[in-house]
Amino acid sequence: MIFKQIFDTETSTYTYIIASAKGREAVIIDPVLENVEDYINALKELDLKLVKVIDTHIHADHITGASKLKQATNCITIMGEHTPADTVEIKVKDDEIIHIDNLKIRSMYTPGHTSDSYSFLLDNYLFTGDTLLINGTGRTDFQNGSSKDAYNSLFSNLLKLPEETLVYPGHDYNGKFSSTIGNEKKFNPRLQVKSVDEYVDIMSKLNLAKPKMIETNVSRNIKLGAN
Question: Do 39 and 28 meet the contact criterion of CB atoms below 8 Å apart?
Answer without folding.
Answer: yes
